[in-house]
Structures are given as C-alpha cells and as structure tokens.
Amino acid sequence: MFKLIIVIFSFTILIYSIAFAQVKPLEQNQQIQQDSLVIEEQSVDSISTDDSSDLTIWNKVCPVMGNKVDVDGPTVEYNGKLYGFCCPGCDAKFEKNPEKYSKNLSDDGTRFIGRK
Predict the structure, then answer these.
(1) What is the predicted pLDDT for the residue at 83?
(2) Which of 7, 61, 102, 114 is the most exposed place for a label (fewest CB within 10 A)?
(3) Is the pTM of this model over 0.90?
C-alpha cells in the first residue's frame, strides 16, 4: 500500500512539473514580444521626430505637376532637401525618378520650369 501511494505521488509531481514547465516559457515569450514592441515603437518615434524637425519643405510648386504644394501633403527627402507635392500620386512618381523631376523646379523652388 505504501509503495502505491509513493508511485501515485511521484506520478502526480511528474505531471505537474511537465504542465508548469510548458506554461513558463510561453509567459517568457510573451514578455519578450512585448519588450521588443516597446523598443520598436521607441525607435520609430525617434526616427519620425528627427526627420520632421530637421527639414522643412523648400519648394513652393510641385516638381511633378507644377501645382501649388499642399503643406499637409506628402513629402520626400532628396539630396538634403524636403520636397513637397500637390497630391499623393506625385510623391510616388518623384521617388521613381527624382533626378528628372527635381530639374523641373527653379533654383529657389518657386517656379515650375519643366514640361507638364
């Protein structure tokens, strides 16, 4: 009878050990994921803060269409200058060939000198 109690007790301890051993790494994995998300959010915040504080839109007209720049519209940094655009589609065109479109503006960025 005593041997049976010891076997049941040992078996119970073994089952609980296996059950708790599987739960702990899952909790640790979730904590690691939360920590990495916090680090990622901090790095994204620092990148966006640095870019917006250093540069201002220097051109007054869109280098793609020649229309007035929308100050709340999209922007692209190229050759140390922040280019503004009249609409969201223009920034995508500019990014494909920035050398071509940057030549469409006067030296001070106030006039469109290229072809529409």
Answers:
(1) 95
(2) 7
(3) no
Type and span of the H or E element at 41: helix 2-54
Radius of gyration of the chain from Cα atoms? 30
Inter-CA distances, 83 with 13, 23, 24, 45, 89, Å: 68, 52, 51, 22, 14
pLDDT, tens digit, 9 for 90 and up, residues 6-54: 889 888 888 877 776 655 555 555 666 666 555 555 544 444 434 444 6
DSSP character for 105?
B
| CB 70 within 8 Å of CB 86 | yes
**Cβ atoms of residues 103 and 92 within 8 Å:** no
- How far is 50 from 58, CA to CA, in rounded Å? 17
From CA 76, how far away is CA 52, in angstroms rounded? 11
